[in-house]
Amino acid sequence: MSRPRSYIRARDFIDEPKGSSGSGDVFLGCHDDEFSQITKLRSSPHEHLCRVLPGNAKLPISPVNMLMGRECNYSGRGRFSLSDSCHVLSRYLPVNGPSAIDKMKSCAYVSQFSDDGSLFVAGFQESHIRIYNVDSGWKVHKDIRARSLRWTVTDTSLSPDRRFLVYSSISPIVHIVDVSSATKESHANVTEIHEGLEFSSNSNDYEGYSFGIFSVKFSTDGREIVAASNDESIYVYDLESRKLSLRIPAHRSDVNAVCFADESGHIIYSGSDDHLCKVWDRRCFVTKGQAAGVLMGHLEGITFIDTRGDGRYLISNGKDQAIKLWDIRKMSSNVNYKPRRRYAEWDYRWMEYPEQAKFFRHPLDLSLATYKGHSVLRTLIRCYFSPAYSTGQKYIYTGSADSSVYVYDVLSGSQVAKLDFHEDPVRDCNWHPFYPMLVSSSWDGVLARWEFPGNNENQVVPVKRPTRRRRQHFL
């Protein structure tokens, strides 16, 4: 989200050393040896297959040769390892189609597969959330009419056991729904109770809606929820005691994204309109009262962050039209760092990004890699690592304001696919955790399914729609 800021002249550059213009080459792709090695190990075939089979070992080994090597037991296991499987599956990208899953009259804001890929959740602007049963031909499993929304559903999150769904809005209340109940039509407090979880004790927040939650996530054990709000804070909610367990005054502007770093739940990542990603260690926050470290490198606000799940690496999408890859071991201890904007008068919600700014680089950039080509305008565009099971997380993919989905190679930084279909910004997209299938959700109200190889079922052809009326505010 964005809020009005004091005017800063364009020549008042970002905290740069004297004599530095801040411009220069932005190197795409990752050149960190450790990250590259880990990624290659996750998606490379067994070394014996590379040595024994004929041909150039540097090239991807064909599925036929991989099968032959497995039958001859070259690896000594008699089966494919996970990295062997990723080596084959990662080449079959979900780029065919699309086929239509659903079409709504309002903008699609969020979408998410469950951890096992059996359910798919989509949240729409007009108080509507639908949960689809993927294994039953995408039939609607639950049709939810949300409660106490202002403007839109800002985020949703499924519990790890797929029993509960939480949804947030520009409101101090996060609501929780029982997904496992037999009720298909879940109208808030009419056909089913949507319990409200209180995230603000200020009664004025109810009347003026001054408090909003932009991001909400379950912990891996399903016992806690972490949320990011526009009061510059992060909240942790204990579901067992039904109360807030921690509030962190985290940033100097709206916090647009938050997530747990790994299964332990000790480390939290956050991203804000103050341009910074921060790392929080709950084990020492009570005594220190500050972030464990800061990741600086973006020139504009952060719209989304995604963890690699290992407690080390994460990616962030920024309004400077770039995704950045981070290693928290390289974070800065300067937790009081205050970035400044080059173009304070620029607003991503209705203005194009300044052309000259695309070549600027943060003088203190701590990121491992930068990925460019997509557009982060009008709304909080989301980005993700590709699934570990089928691709070894060797790709990064993102929605885009130019109505497309972009897929980048995490090591080279090159664009390996661009999915064109929608007529409005693609705010969110999600890759199936096991199959070569991706679903894009757009402001045109369409949920589109991309697959490999694709069966042309319910194939849809883009139809030019009238230009949408520009809204006064966007999320």
Summarize the structure in words:
- It is a single chain.
- With 475 residues, the chain is mainly β.
- The protein contains seven helices and 29 strands.
- The strands form seven sheets. The protein has a five-stranded mixed beta sheet with strand order 2-3-4-5-9, with no helix packed on it.
- A hairpin with a 3-residue loop joins strand 3 (119-124) and strand 4.
- The N and C termini lie close together (5 Å).
- Mean pLDDT is 86; it is low at 3-23 and 461-473.
Q: Tell me the radius of gyration.
A: 22 Å
What coarse outline follows from CA principal-axis ratios? globular
- Summed up, the helix count is 7
Mean pLDDT: 86
Beta-strand segment tally:
29
Strand content: 25-35%
Computed structural class: mainly beta
Level of helix content? 10-25%
Main sheet?
A: 5 strands, mixed
Q: How far is the first residue's CA from the last residue's CA? A: 5 Å
Strand arrangement in the largest pleated sheet = 2-3-4-5-9
Q: pLDDT below 50 for ≥5 consecutive residues: which ranges?
A: 3-23, 461-473
Ordered list of secondary-structure elements with their pairings:
Elements: H1 33-43, H2 47-52, H3 63-71, H4 82-89, E1 96-103, E2 108-113, E3 119-124, E4 128-133, E5 139-145, E6 155-158, E7 164-168, E8 173-178, E9 185-187, E10 195-198, H5 204-208, E11 213-218, E12 224-229, E13 233-238, E14 243-249, E15 255-260, E16 267-272, E17 277-281, H6 282-288, E18 293-295, E19 302-307, E20 313-318, E21 322-327, E22 369-372, E23 383-385, H7 388-391, E24 395-398, E25 404-409, E26 415-420, E27 426-431, E28 437-442, E29 446-451
